Amino acid sequence: MPSTTDRPDDSEDPFAVAEATLDVRETGRETVPIERPTEPIDRPTGALEAGDRPTVLVDEKKLGEQPTVKVPGQRKPPPRSRHAPLPVAVAFATLWSAALCYLPVAAVIGMARTLEGQGGLGGAAHAGLAGWLLGHGVPIGTSIGPLGLPPLLLTVLIVWRLNRAGLHVTRAIGARRTGRIGDALLVAFSIALTYSLLGSVASLAVDGKGTEVTPARAAINFFVLGLLGALAGSLRGTDALGVLARRTPRPLRDGLRTGVMAALFILAAGAAVTGLSVAVDGGQAAETISVYQTGVAGQAGITLVSLAYGANATVWAAAYLLGPGFALGTGSEIGLTGVVVGKLPALPLLAGVPDGPLGAGGAVLLAVPVLAAVAAGWLLVLRLQRSDRLGEKPALPWSRVLGGSLLAGPAAGLVLGVACRASGGSLGDGRLATIGPDPWQVGLVATVMVAVSASLGAAAARTFAPAPKA
Fold it and tell me: Which long-range contacts (CB under 8 A, 24 or more apart) does 426-430 make?
């Protein structure tokens, strides 16, 4: 085979130029300088016989240049994309996320303010900004005391939008799928710092007569939520989450996944109980709304405010099913075994609060979180069998089955304890200064219950569930 760097001289066969060009295609090089031959090139006509090599036609107008030779099976390299600077991407994503969370709040509170006949765009914007700060857990000082009960549904929306911001910034700066944990931390910290600055500015705008806000508290809350939400998105965007998962010991990874799944099952049961109780007492909820002498806009506003606190009621119902229950004011107690509660605010959501202990029905409700944890343990074994593709014999080792199930207890207790802490707060200095479940009691009960129930479910699945064939 002729070398790709050799050039045929004038004395060689005129087809040498074509031979050299064809060799370039075989070696995979893209360009090669070709000298202009002194004699014309005779091109054969007719069909090629079997075994003959095809003739490469050379454009005489481009002789002496460096033509591009296409290599079969080789794709053209994609053009280099221009990545956005980190400050620009962070500023745009953070402001966009904040706007998408603030505007719905301003609209809902603006409709609810028609209850008092207080219209106006400026008042709605100011009240919406205060409600937006409340969704971050920032207490708002009022004439009746601090309002510190955050609408948890708004908090979930805020964290989700920050998660999307972390994902978008990761893509914008070209750190997508790099697998570098440092890139994820840099994106999350930048968004959290920008979001903290935004929260400080919002608190200064709200702070005034009738609504007192501490800028330092707002900066801390905004930074924590911004860091948690953006870190979740940046870890997914850079694929650093998979890197961390592979570095985590398998029993710990199985326990975390099973515990989170059990906690979500219990919260789903709480949501079902909340919806059922409100539906049963739907007449009382309708009467509560009719008490407000307002139009359609005001009724829609108060209904949407109740829905925003629906996530809080879901966590409270989960604590109710677990046993510790929750409080709706100082000295109150709402649990399966007893109900002590005074006069409640006129909110449709509170129409489903039980009037007394459920008796025998309470024992049935206590079995709901137990069954949820058993299902999580059962699914743990099925997932391990699918991932390992084990045959019917030998079965999964007991150490792995029970290890992941027992570690699921602390994981579920941590998730439910944090949820209870986030769902509670105060509505002034009076009797409603304490609202929500005790996070320590709920976390402790959930830890023990999930660890035992998930172990039973996993043991039953290992014993009776058929393993998938390899």
Answer: 426/139, 426/145, 426/146, 426/147, 426/148, 426/149, 427/145, 427/147, 427/149, 427/345, 428/142, 428/144, 428/145, 428/146, 428/147, 429/144, 429/145, 429/146, 430/144, 430/145
Q: How far apart are CA 178 and CA 163, in angstroms?
A: 18
Partnered with residue 425 across adjacent β-strands are: 435
User: Structure pTM?
Assistant: 0.77
Domain ranges of the chain: 1-77, 85-247, 258-470
Q: Can you tell me the distance from the alpha carbon of 81 to that of 171, in angstroms, rounded to the nearest whole number?
A: 11
Q: Helix, strand or coil for residue 352?
A: helix
The β-bridge partners of 327 are 436
Averaged pLDDT, groups of 10, the chain, 470 residues long: 46 51 48 48 48 48 49 50 85 94 85 59 82 92 85 94 95 89 94 96 87 91 95 92 88 93 95 83 65 63 80 92 87 79 71 71 82 94 75 66 92 96 86 88 95 93 69
Judge contact between 270 and 320, C-beta under 8 A. Answer: yes
Q: Taking a C-beta distance cutoff of 8 angstroms, is the pair 321, 277 a contact?
A: no
Q: Which of 347, 331, 346, 337 is nearest to 432 (CA)?
A: 331
